[in-house]
Amino acid sequence: MQFPEGFLWGGATAANQYEGGWNEGGKGWSVSDCAKAHFNTSVTNYSAHNEITSEEIQYAMEHPEDEVNYPKRHGSDFYHHYKEDIALMAEMGFKVFRMSIAWSRIYPNGDDLEPNEEGLQFYDNVFDECKKYGIEPLVTMSHYEPPLNLVLKYNCWYNRKTIDFFCKFVETICTRYKDKVKYWLTFNEVDSMIRHPYTTGGLIRDRFKDKNFEEVIFQSMHHQFVASALATKICHEIIPGSQVGCMLTKLTYYPYSCRPEDVLEMQQKMRSIYCYSDTQVFGEYPTYLLARFKNHGLHIVMEDNDLEVMKKYPVDFISFSYYMSSCVAKNTEGLDTTEGNTVTAIKNPYLPSSEWGWQIDPIGLRISLVDLYDRYRKPLFIVENGLGAKEELVPDGKGSYTVNDDYHIEYYKAHFKAMYDAIHEDGVELLGYTSWACIDLVSESTKQMSKRYGFVYVDADDYGNGTYNRYKKKSFYWYKHVIETNGECLSE
Prior knowledge:
- It is a single chain.
- By secondary structure, the protein is an alpha/beta fold.
- The chain is about 40% helix and about 15% strand.
- It is built from 16 helices and 16 strands.
- It has an eight-stranded parallel beta barrel, surrounded by four helices. The chain has a two-stranded parallel ribbon with strand order 6-8. A two-stranded antiparallel sheet has the order 9-10.
- The chain has helices at about 15-20, 45-50, 55-60, 80-90, 105, 115-130, 150-155, 160-175, 195-200, 215-240, 260-280, 285-295, 305-310, 360-375, 405-425, 475-485, and strands at about 10, 95-100, 135-140, 185, 245-250, 250-255, 315-320, 325-330, 335-340, 345, 380-385, 395, 400, 430-435, 455-460, 470.
């Protein structure tokens, strides 16, 4: 049961959830530094956790000392632990480490004339540490952290000027790290702007009271599509042989029944997911998305050469997150709903659920891989997949502590089997796999540290209390064995 030679095993993180050091090294404010935790809100109420107002942002800026209510400010403190963390990844045998560069660490205000040298040097140090252990960085250019100044001064991605600010940032990091980074992703879950417009696009609803907010979102998304194409162009020109991918939230839906109405509902739902990757892979808007613009009365302003740029510089591969699947039905009356990755959907009665309501479906991963590869005929990369769980440290019998996370092992084992079947039975070209998250961090959806995904436990609670010491979980050693045998141990 071996995976292909050269398969890239590793793990994933994001600066806004993991890095910390939010006000050190010349870093500026990002949108995530103002993302407040709602500790008394149900973990199943995703929208309540992610809505934000101008007034709330102003309050956050007036309280820079508050790392309790704004846990993304401290994350897992990778900023001060990067050597230790990368050594742990190397001990597991990582071939690849997916991470992101905090835009506001390089250009603190987004529109600065010159980059922040201290920020550039920090990532030099991180990449040098990766190189020391033979770990290939997979770098997301923008992962939920536009500089806050671009939001307040320009309305961020709604303003076309942000394309130029982003391209300047991309040119800077590609030039600086051209000998250190080969694999790049442009925008994390570019489709997510429709579900959480603030963290993805820097859009605050109350600043657009006189506009159709759906139109605002798609206008901003158009600017990101153009920026992604230009980023691909810049990366290819500066780094010969580099590979640039898009990144999609792979939401997989099943019809709740075999009623044709439910099947049609599923097809329409999947189109609403694929339209974003269709645009980045094929370099043009799919006709069904153009039909949506027309039918909803959305007027998207484009410059003369926008479509030409998008067509000329599509992405090289497709990366995606996959955590769960859901159901859809035309008539939802009387049907149970449950939470998922940024969505609420109909509960599948045939699947178990996590403590956060996310339904566990490894076969859905195989279905997703086949659907994506059949659709695009380009290499795929799973860059997020994992299970969040509440955990407890226990003595390991060797003078330290561990977590007996057999549930993680069972989760990964089933999903790896689905990956293997997709590769060997279905002919899918899969470049690699990075688990979310390889080391515990602050969750995106609920801002909790107690929703733990990692192979490494970080001693910090939801309120930032703790030593931030790292402890290897049982799954740490299991994943190490998977990597060193290239998956062969899965058949034992």
